[in-house]
Amino acid sequence: MKSSSLVLLLGLLAGSIRPAAAQLLQGKQAFTRADSLRGGQTPLRTCYDLNYYHLDVKLDPAKRFISGSNLFRFTAAQDFTRLQFDLFANLKVEKVLYKGKEVPFTREANAVFVTFPKAIAKGSRDEFTVQYSGNPIVAKKAPWDGGMVFTQDAKGKPWVATACQGAGASIWWPTKDQQADEVDSMLISVSVPDGLKDISNGRLRKTTKLKGGYTRFDWAVRNPINNYDVALNVGDYQHFSDLYQGEKGPLTLDYWVLPENLAKAKKQFGDNVKPMLKSMENWFGPYPWYQDGYKLVDAPHLGMEHQSAVAYGNKYQNGYLGKDRSNTGWGDKWDFIIIHESGHEWFGNNITTKDIADMWVHEGFTCYSEALFVETQFGKTAGQEYIHGQRRNIQNDAPIIGPYGVNQEGSGDMYDKGSNLLNMIRTVINDDAKWRQLLRGLSSTFYHQTVTGQQVIDYFNRETGRDFTKVFDQYLRHASLPTLEIRFENNQALARWVSEVRGFDLPVRLRLKGGDYQFVPVTTKWAPIKELAGATKENLEVDTFNYYIGVLVE
Known about the structure:
The chain is α+β, with helices and mostly antiparallel strands. The chain has ten helices and 30 strands.
């Protein structure tokens, strides 16, 4: 450590590569009523608990036109006569049917309000159907902006896909468009022109030849699913399959790719999928969707974590479009999109946050899963190096937690800074077996559930017996890093934390040059470093490899 005053603010490099995930909505300063209708949990939404959807649509790729219906089956959470569902304003609601009759509705922004002829009683199970049609918004740069992608394969045949996280599933189908309430199961029926196939979530239940040159594909999802994961993939798909012997028995692996990619897919998927599943199941517990299987689907965009039908568009190469995001040499040894997007099956799909403001739970843990995959494949040192390399992508530009109730996520630092935060907590716990148990317990405790970020923090506090709340607060609710200040008085080293969080408390690993690291308790008050007698500016070293912090030595 240099003797002159120095602030080491690590990982603030700009120009980073962001993973494929939600459409980034950052930078928005003022919120509107439309934002509250989209992101809020109003009584018109909480009055009904979703049980089941049957989405039944017909796609005309040439006209970029979609039409059909969605059946909402629900349990009333309270007595009500009016509720809200969502559909983008550019799509037409043809009618809303209840008990075989049309019921009135009104529209505001992308919200639709339905009035029923009499009160629906609390606890009763009921249903209504929305018929709709229109030309959905076409994504300009999926998956970073929402909508449908219309393109062609190498032979000029239509190739269509959806990508809507952030923008919302209601960009292409009528739904209760928020993350807090998921259906327990779903049937997805998609009719497409003959010669094409639709690949959606779950398992293919039936294929039906229709009049007029169309074929319908019925996909059954037997588990809870969040609405942005519901996917439509239409193309001249070829299929091949495999089987993985996982923690809960045989898991079907189904791959749907364009004909021109078949040979490349067999090699790339074969090299990456089973090692990925082995690592993820080891660290996070069984794959969450054995009933629905695991799929990779060729996509005309980079990729998305569509549940049991992961969209893949990494061009059959290792790294992130051939690049190592960590710049360590470890990130170009495996296919980033397969590992990252599949990691979301545990975080994002199995565990889904109730509000997109808490999306760090999805992206922080999944970004961290990349490092655990590296560790599984190449050893712990390699995994730690990969995490350290992720810092080059961190901006420290804004809080990671966004504002609640307006469908607004926080800083993109939720990925790499979130990963480094988790690694610091692992470092402090200093017990890899316990750490693995914590991660697996997280998956089982919140299995198939929607959660708040605070529930996840509370879980770590409870299960570790240590209160990490202030650590999470600093890294999630503030843009800057905590700074470890060290000064020397009368041949004695003293230390304290400087943090925006009052009472910030985090033990840090320090050592004398050439010695072993020791955990030293440090608070926001100056205190001697008694554990390291003889420490000087020249020989005191801070573990900035495992701690993503600022350091000031005076």
